[in-house]
Write the structure tokens for this entry.
Amino acid sequence: MGTCVNERWGCCFSTPWLLSLFLLFLWSLCSPCLSIHAETAESHSTFTCEPIGLRMCQDLPYNTTFMPNLLNHYDQQTAALAMEPFHPMVNLQCSEDLRMFLCALYAPVCMEYGRVSMPCRALCHRAKRDCHKLMEMFGVTWPDEIECSRFPDCDEAYPRTVDLQTSVDPTDISPISIQRDYGFWCPRELKMEPDLGYSFLGTRDCSAPCPNMYFQRSELTFARYFIGVVSIVCLAATLFTFLTFLIDVTRFRYPERPIIFYAICYMMVSLVFFLGFLLEDRVACNAANPAQYRAATVTQGSHNKVCSLFFMVLYFFTMAGSVWWVILTITWFLAAVPKWGSEAIEKKALLFHTCAWGLPGCLTVALLALNKIEGDGVSGVCFVGLYDVTALRWFLLAPLCLNVAVGVSLLLVGIVALNRVRMEIPLEKENQDKLVKFMIRIGVFSVLYLVPLLTVISCYLYEHSNRAVWEITWVQERCRDYHIPCPYQVEQTSHPDLTLFLIKYMMMLVVGIPSVFWVGSKKTCFEWASFLQGRRRKDSGVNESRQVLQEPDFAQSLLRDPHTPIIRKSRGTSTQGTSTHASSTHLAILEDKAGSMHSKTSYHGSLHRSRDGRYTPCSYRGGEEQTIPPHSSMPHLDHPLSTHSSLHRLESQSRHSSQRDLVVASPTRITHGTSGGRVANDNDGASA
């Protein structure tokens, strides 16, 4: 007993009929490539009347059509794929108007350029009404783009008589008589779901091919291994810097502390590139889906969680590393120009951390909100500005150029100030040499950072200026493969150079290696040797890093007035002192006393015998001394806690000193000139 499908036809389909319909439907799905002649599949950028190649639209009152058609199908092959669902209904002749209605949309009659003839609304209603039940049986829905309300309200046959009178034979018009540029049409293989927010070459719901649209697979393999090796080297260098800091966290103080955070940032950057090397293109690319005629495409947006994580870590720490370098130049500027000491700069540490982590965090959140994440098929990571020129301009070039401008300006001012100190203030030969070495050290470190960073910025500018030409060249070369419009009147073609891309990636990683230059010293070797042997020095709290800006003689020379005489004193431990902070000056006084009792011979050489028979410290050039008033912020040494601290430090440094000298030590009178921090001990001088 058969089942009636459409009583209007006056017949009922039995089971064999249904099986035949099903086989016919399968055949129609497998025959899109046979529904169009090969000679009409070529892409073009001209308006021409071309012979109809669609098998469904043969033997019509007209035999020429034009592309793009009324549904924006660029060529007849694309139109044939869109007509596939209607093949069973046309073959079963559910309506005498369906075939003509579909051909009026997918292969409209060709007239002169600028004129289009659309089917009437009544024709659409009849075709939809007659085939509605059969379409439900095959699971086919009426597309929105051919909804009947979109067509003119008329009831005429198609094509109209006037359309046939103005139609032109394809041999009468030259292919170059009327030309236009259709722009970029997204190929079917690169189409994406609308809710993902993809965009490529200004076209929505489209993505770039993966792994890369410019380079061959062999070139990408070489580039990936190259980036992997460089990332390993940078990861090892920055990790060494960070571990050296962890061995003795008190060694690196301001103004050099930002170097440690700078190294941490680029350690994370190199780690992300290394993970991208291991994962290849599994994160940066969407897998191909042959069942839906989709090729592998570049990942965009935040729907891929791993890609989003890679982007956040890479972009955040790249920007944070650049900001930490600017903060490093600020701390050098504060130490060289206003003569700030370590404690004074360290009080601004909270502000430094807020800027260094807060600004990159805001930029990262903004990019996530704007959905500007893009996969990088070359390195295997996710970043920004790889295909979006606007994001490249405002989120990479602008911040990096601003950081370079500010950092270089502060660096030059600081170096000029240090050079003026060297020229105007008469320092001892030892401190002169240390100042010159420190200036050279700053210069070399800055060059090692600025050269890679400026190279990266140059590569970004090169990409920004040539991206449009590369894209047009790619479309021109691949338009026939993708069956999309070819560019019209291409004036310039160019291909990107893989070498410049490799230089860009290398410099993005090499920029973190200069941190090793700063921590590399004999002291670092001794610390690592002690750490590997499982022992630490007990006096590590006293013997801190004797950096040039933290040396007592050099610090006091920077802090005093150029016309103030210099007082020669014995070498103590590092003070990091300033004239504006009582704690650092207090530490300098205690250490100066310890150094004077530890080496009396050197101290006697700087004493002068007064008329009353006592020895007082003096300069070789003469100078006035002034007793600190009682209301001064400078702490007195006759405080019990200060005396106990001084005795304990003296006992650890000078084991051969007599216990009697330590017990009878009397309070010290503190004097200073314009720079402050000069010490005179009357009782010690008398006993000497």
